[in-house]
TrEMBL record:
Residues 12-54 form the RNA polymerase Rpb7-like N-terminal domain. GO terms for cellular component: P-body; RNA polymerase II, core complex. This is RNA polymerase Rpb7-like N-terminal domain-containing protein. The keyword Ligase does not apply. One of its GO terms (molecular function) is translation initiation factor binding.
Length: 178
């Protein structure tokens, strides 16, 4: 699975009114609130800040704003998916040409070309159904899929997935994943 601990640095700008005895606590709280749950480029999605390195370095005054800038070093648990990885996800939208699913913060598109050949789109039920009616993919269905492509943008990561291999497809009970 794509979970890693990485060392990162974040420059925090602090207004002079926070220059008091609790500055260190203020910086720690601000760091956590600003980075947890955010996308960190090539590192992936920051799940949680595990450790903030001590001592916190001395800040530098920004002459144009009067704010102090503190370079805070920290260790974070990140979620970074890779091509070829198998993930469990929840279907968020069903379309005639495939479906969208999410695995935590990652949005995944599965084209109808990447579904098993026995699956057909049912317009009445707005779902994908196997010919023998054994498998059904609709909104909120838990599915296991393989990532076949990743696109990293400045603020988000998108993926394409496939269910054309053995052991991929709808998972028995989606209630466990919602």
């Amino acid at each position: 699975m794509g979970f890693f601990v990485v060392k990162l640095v974040k420059d925090l700008q602090v207004h002079p009114r926070f220059f008091n005895a609790s500055l260190s606590d203020t910086l720690k709280q601000r760091l956590i609130s600003e980075v947890e749950g955010q996308f960190a480029g090539r590192h992936g999605f920051i799940v949680i800040v595990q450790k903030i390195e001590e001592p916190i370095p001395v800040g530098e005054i920004d002459s144009s704003t009067g704010f102090a800038v503190f370079p805070i070093k920290y260790h974070a648990l990140v979620f970074r998916p890779f091509r070829g990885e198998v993930l469990d996800s929840i279907v968020t939208r069903v379309l005639p040409h495939g479906f969208l699913a999410s695995a935590g913060p990652l949005d995944i598109f599965v084209s109808h070309h990447c579904l098993p050949s026995d699956m057909k789109y049912d317009q009445q039920g707005e779902c994908w159904v196997s010919i023998n009616q054994a498998d059904k993919i609709e909104t909120k269905t838990a599915v296991r899929l393989k990532l076949i492509g990743l696109k990293v943008e400045a603020t988000k990561m998108h993926a394409t997935g496939s269910m054309k291999e053995d052991f991929l497809g709808p998972i028995a009970s989606s209630a466990d994943y919602i």
